Amino acid sequence: MNTENNTSGDLRLPILQGVLPVRAEQIPAEVIAGLTLAALAIPEVMGYTKISGTPVITGLYTLLIPMALFALFGSSRHLVVGADSATAAILAAGLVGLAATGSDEYVALAGLLACMAAGFLLVARILGLGFMADFLSRTVLIGFLTGVGLQVALGEVAGMLGLKGGGHGTLQKLWHAMQQIEDLNVYALATTLSVLGVIVGLKRVSKKFPGALIAVVGAIIVSWALDLKAHMHVLGTVPSGLPHIALPDVRWSWDLIEKLVPVAFAMFVVILAQSAATSRAYAARYNERFSANIDLVGLGLANIGAGLSGTFVVNGSPTKTQMVDSAGGRTQLSLLVTTVIVLLVLLFLTAPLAYMPEAVLSAVVFLIGIDLIDVEGMRRIYGQRRSEFWVALITAVVVVLVGVEQGILLAIVLSLIDHTRRGYRPKNVVLVPSELGDWHAQPVATQAQALPGLLVYRFTHSMYYANAPQLSEEIIDLVKRAQPPLRWFCIDASAVDDVDYTAAETLRSIFAILEKQGIRLVVTQIMEDVRERSRYRLLQLFGEHAFYDTLGQVIQAYQQQGTTVSSGPRD
Fold first, then answer.
1. For a Cys staple, 160 with which of 331, 362, 513, 520, CB 3.0–4.6 Å?
2. Which helix (H) or strand (E) holds 433?
3. CA-CA distance, 283 to 297, in Å (whole number)?
4. For 28-72, how does the pLDDT look when each residue is reduced to its tens digit (9 = 90+)?
5. Same domain, 403 and 447
6. How many Å apart are CA 525 and CA 503, to the nearest integer?
7. Distance (Å, rounded) from C-alpha 462 to C-alpha 426?
8. Considering the domain boundaries, does residue 10 fall inside one?
9. What is the reported pTM?
10. Residue 473 sits in which domain range?
11. What is the per-residue DSSP string for 146-169?
């Protein structure tokens, strides 16, 4: 995969990077992919409004201006941007208590959050922070999305049964549904089972069938023909026409901004991680160029478009991206086709939505949640790396029991802790030469010497304050227990890409300890940039004669020197 940092001579326009170049023979496939995405995504995004707590029409709005803006300004040729269950769940959790769900004020706050998330994305682009996506590990992302899936699916139980529901958290909603089970609406239950049967059944026949669209259209027709609104809740009037473009109409205050900043930041992290991971996967699949930083601009503009057009935050969607890819779409042209279809729906086809039973959307959302629960992914993590499984499981549990916003923030912390833990206790080795002249790594505990009196110790991570004590302890222990006693101690620094102040001071102390015992400390295979950055700390202390380019030079110098200390070759 090519990225903006390793591709030269590929001059491209600042817009339409995801569209151009497009071959004439590819256009029919792009049109079909756009039609397929519209058929699959329209019922899906209406379902997301159940998660976000916004009016149904706002789901369609996410497929209009926001999708078009990313198609025009993003760099990925494959990433589909639209409503997403994870960010919709964060939105709903963040606005609890700030406004009545579904009210004009609520929608305005949702738009403001989209604009704030866009602000974080654009600031990240200015600072070149696209790399931050790499710090949310795949492990915690699987755990986070699994938790979101459980929360979303369990939260729709009341709606599928035609119950009033209630409560805010996942367990509260489930408890309220169980208490109201005597009021179960048979019509809602029958509708739910029918919708689930159609969607699941058609998916088993072929994933290319728009099962959700067929189920939704069928339910609308049946509801209209049998006048089901007399027996169960339906959506009611859905406004037609284009969205009104304006700043979110909210009561501005610093107190409000302070409450919304953590929510917007949690959205930003999910957008950054999920979008970059999806773009990277498809760019690698087709060996194409994409830029995480340019995608940040596209995502930022898409969310500004969402905020100004009266809808909620949008995100790179792995499921919608797969829909387009499976249908043969290979550029953002397919997304522009989808926006045209959505435009026609908004202008001419919103009236039938009034007959849609609410249980239909609950069933669609329930299946969205089930699809997010990655049992197979959790099983693979458990089998391959037990410690990371517990990290993923804790993230999922926090999302379900505490909240989505808290879950994503915990995911960030756990990712960083896991990363730090790996560097905190690196698995260092000692090196010994074979008869053929190559080198073999052995555990430090073996205390194996390269030659009698010479021990080569490879530190396998950057040296910094957290692992400096391990560096000191292992070297002192190796020196103390060496048999025969050491004359030279060599640090192989080929894996060390940085030495911070604390680690440099630790090396200074080690140098002094070894010098008192008559042991010469030498360093080999140190990276040039590390040597330059550490010149004032290491070269002045050890002397340039202590640095060797290769292990072979160390062996040669040690053998030539015998028991005498010489200056050795200079680099």
1. 362
2. strand 429-433
3. 18
4. 889 988 998 888 788 889 888 988 999 999 999 999 999 999 999
5. no
6. 18
7. 9
8. no
9. 0.72
10. 429-561
11. HHHHHHHHHHTHHHHTT-----SS
